[in-house]
Each structure stands twice: as C-alpha cells, then as structure tokens.
Design a protein that fits this description.
By secondary structure, this protein is an alpha+beta fold. Strand 9 and strand 10 form a beta hairpin. The protein has 2 domains: 208 residues, Ribosomal Protein S5, domain 2; 129 residues, GHMP kinase, C-terminal domain (Alpha-Beta Plaits). The strands form 2 sheets. Strands 1, 2, 3, 4, 5, 6 and 7 form a 7-stranded mixed sheet that branches. Strands 9-10-8-11 form a 4-stranded antiparallel sheet.
Length: 347
C-alpha cells in the first residue's frame, strides 16, 4: 500500500491510503479436474500473469469499469472478439459478488466493519478463459484488498472456500477449490479434497511442496481458445451427479495421479511424473470431448518429446521438457500453430 498527497489524483482526499492486492495465474500438474469431485490435485502458481486490485477510501462505494465491462464497440467484430476473449460479463460482476460475500462472511463471524466506503478498480494480465484461473484471481485479489481495507483477518485455509462461493453461489459458475487454494497459498501445493476431511475440518488438506522439487516446466497457450470453463465442465458434473460409473471411475483414477505425482516429485522421479501428466490428459479424454485446436496443442508438445496436460479446463497446456534444445523446439513448433510458450515463474 502507499499514499498520495495530490487531492486531485484519483478524486480522493489528501494523503489517502491506496491499497493494492494481487493474485496470480495457476496451472494444475496432476489431478485436475478431480478437485470439484472430492479428488486430489497438485498445482502451482504462475507469476508471469496476475490480477491487480487497487482500492482507496472515497465518500461513496464505486466499482470502476474496465474496457471489458463497457458496452460500447467500434463494430460487431470488436464485440465478437471481446466476447470470445472475456465472455459476456467482464470482471465487474466478480468484484460485486466478492464484496457481497465478504460482507456476509463478516456478518456471520460477527465482525463489525468500519463505516467507510471505497473506490475499487481492477486489471488483469491473465489471458482469460484458457485454463489459467483468471476469474478466481480477480476474486482472491479483491478479497485480499477488502481484508486490508477493513483490517479483517480470514484464515488462510478458509479464504478459498469464500472465493469459491463467490462464483458458485453468487454467479452460478461450476468450479472447484483447486484454483482458489493455490492462489491463496502460492508456490506449489498438494491438495486433498476428501469428503470426510472437508466435513471435519471445513476445508481440504493443503500441503505446500518445495518448488525446487519441480522439473523443467513450460506452458503453451492459445488465446483464441478462450471459453467459459464452467460451461466446459458442466457436462461432467451432470453425469457425475447422475452417478455415471464411467465418469466416477475416471475421476477417481485422475485423483489417484496426485498421490503418485507427489511421490514422484519428492523422489525427483521426473520420468514417472512425465508419464503421469500425460495420463492425466489421456484419462480426461475419456470423459470429455477435446476440440481439435486443443488436441493440436497437446500433440504438438508430445511430438517434441515433452509431456502435456491441460493447465485447467483447456486452452493452455503444461508439461515437462528435458533441456534447452527441446524448449527451443517447442517454441518453434508451437509458433506454427499460433501458440505462445512461456516458462512459469513460481517464486
């Protein structure tokens, strides 16, 4: 946080405290998407991309709209491009829902909030709707900003629950805890969402893993593959809720890969981890339809000798590469299919 002394700046008072809060993109290594079905995952933070919240005291509560929240376009093609990139709603509904849930949490916990208002604005460098958890990053950053502004402490293990409720209860988005856990804890985390554990503790079992254990990782993504992840996963949830044995068995198998992945990481057995990441995606193919463009991402990576699995719900993949020669080949081949390659920054 910092202060401004020019009363004309940001239309606020002299020496008004400016609060800044951030949350970063994330990528799942193994176990995804079993987190929404009492499964297990291992995920890592991706600090190459982040959501940024700026909040400062003002006479009235104001949510400043960003370009993706404004319904004015140059032409119908710009409207089409905007919807493909960010969906129909932009980020403003996420801020509104996060503020509402924060207030409800404080009321439930009998926390009296100071009588003051604020203006809040957001921006995000996370490519939206390609499986890097851009929406949940905005929510986590907003909750962190509100916690600072009102001096409220929310336990680390509870914050992901609150963030998840923002999207599932307020906005009707199908999602799991995984994204919110790793964005809260950061680094690399093994997560167990066993139903009995959650019933007893009111949260999952979250075990940070040393990021130094991680092998050489890359992420490749196509922004034109953007879509709302909740829609992609809704079919799986419907079939799961109906007791489809094939879906249930497959999700259980995917969850078991997290335990095997944790063991491989602790032993630095990257050959096994490479196989587990590939199997995670292959198992997923058994219960959901993968688009040709997404298959192209995976196949391009594997043809270079790298492993490949979705970072989230599709649009980007993560995998292990052996050396710089393989990484350079990945960059060149992914460029041919209009995909960008990065090395995730974790610490």
């Amino acid at each position: 946080m910092y202060y401004i002394s020019d009363s004309s700046s940001l239309n606020c008072y002299t020496r008004t405290m400016i609060i800044e809060a951030r949350a970063y993109a994330r990528a799942a290594i193994v176990g995804n998407p079993s987190d929404g079905y009492n499964g297990k995952t291992i995920s890592l933070i991706v600090k190459n991309f982040g959501a940024h919240i700026l909040l400062y005291q003002t006479p009235e509560l104001v949510i400043e709209p960003q370009p993706q929240d404004i319904n004015q376009f140059k032409n119908i093609y710009q409207l089409q491009d905007q919807i493909n990139l960010t969906g129909y709603h932009g980020g403003a509904p996420l801020l509104k829902a996060a503020i509402k849930k924060f207030v409800e949490y404080c009321q439930h916990e009998k926390i009296k909030l100071e009588n003051k208002n604020f203006t809040i604005r957001y921006n995000s460098s996370i490519p939206r709707q390609i499986g890097l958890a851009g929406s949940s990053a905005i929510v986590i950053a907003t909750l962190r900003g509100l916690m600072q502004f009102y001096r409220v402490q929310i336990p680390q293990e509870i914050l992901p629950n609150l963030a998840l409720a923002v999207e599932t209860e307020e906005l009707g988005i199908n999602a799991g805890l995984q994204d919110r856990v790793i964005q809260t804890y950061e680094g690399c985390v093994y997560m167990n969402f066993d139903k009995q554990i959650i019933a007893e503790k009111k949260h999952g079992l979250y075990e940070p893993l040393d990021p130094d254990l991680l092998p050489n990782l890359y992420i490749a993504y196509k922004t034109e593959l953007g879509k709302v992840s909740g829609k992609v996963l809704n079919d799986i949830k419907t079939r799961y809720d109906k007791g489809d044995p094939h879906v249930i068995d497959t999700l259980n198998r995917i969850a078991s890969l997290a335990d095997a992945g944790k063991k491989a990481l602790l032993e630095r057995d990257y050959t096994t981890l490479h196989q587990l990441m590939n199997e995670n995606f292959d198992q997923r193919c058994q219960i959901m339809k993968i688009s040709d463009s997404n298959m192209e991402l995976v196949n391009t990576a594997r043809q270079c000798g790298a492993s490949a699995t979705f970072t989230g719900s599709g649009g980007s993949v993560i995998g292990i590469y052996q050396n710089d020669d393989m990484l350079n080949k990945l960059v060149a081949e992914m460029r041919k299919v209009n995909a960008r390659v990065i090395k995730p920054t974790i610490v």
